[in-house]
Write a structure and sequence with these properties.
By secondary structure, this protein is α+β, with helices and mostly antiparallel strands. It has two domains: 35 residues; 102 residues, Band 7 domain (Tetrahydropterin Synthase, Chain A, 2-Layer Sandwich). Helix content is 58%, strand content 26%. It has a three-stranded antiparallel sheet with strand order 1-2-3. Belongs to the FliL family.
Length: 141
């Protein structure tokens, strides 16, 4: 009886060792394929717009960089640079000083800018493969 239990444990352990390396390699391959490198595209030069604030004209300078994991999206953004820049200039110039004075306002503007870029890329490629938009500088005067 003891011999039967020992044989059963050895068979189970051997089966585990035979299956484990295959499972580990399959999981690693899928994870490596899913984890594409991050690609950053700075939208240079920085955006400079003016906007009204009660009785005075204010200026906003925003540096923008977009991030994607898809090389096709990078190319689509490069090809659509004038369209993207126009959309962002219109968005930035429609802001108010009060709306951008706090972090919540800046985050809202960042989300709106990301949506605008995603729409343009989606129109070009059929999918909105822009993962993030970052303000690399933000100056209001």
């Amino acid at each position: 009886m003891v011999l039967g239990v020992v044989v059963l444990v050895l068979l189970a352990g051997g089966g585990y060792l035979l299956i484990q390396p295959r499972t580990a390699h399959a999981g690693t391959g899928a994870a490596a394929q899913a984890a594409k490198p991050e690609l950053y595209l700075p939208l240079d030069p920085a955006f400079v717009v003016n906007f009204q604030d009660q009785d005075s004209t204010r200026y906003l300078q925003v540096g923008v960089t977009v991030m994607t994991h898809d090389q096709n999206a990078v190319q689509a953004m490069k090809d659509s640079d004038p369209v993207i820049r126009n959309a962002l200039v219109m968005l930035f110039s429609s802001q108010t000083y009060a709306g951008l004075s706090d972090t919540a306002g800046k985050k809202k503007l960042q989300a709106q800018a990301l949506d605008a870029v995603r729409k343009i890329v989606s129109d070009k490629t059929g999918k909105p493969d822009v993962d993030a938009l970052y303000f690399t500088s933000f100056v209001m005067q």
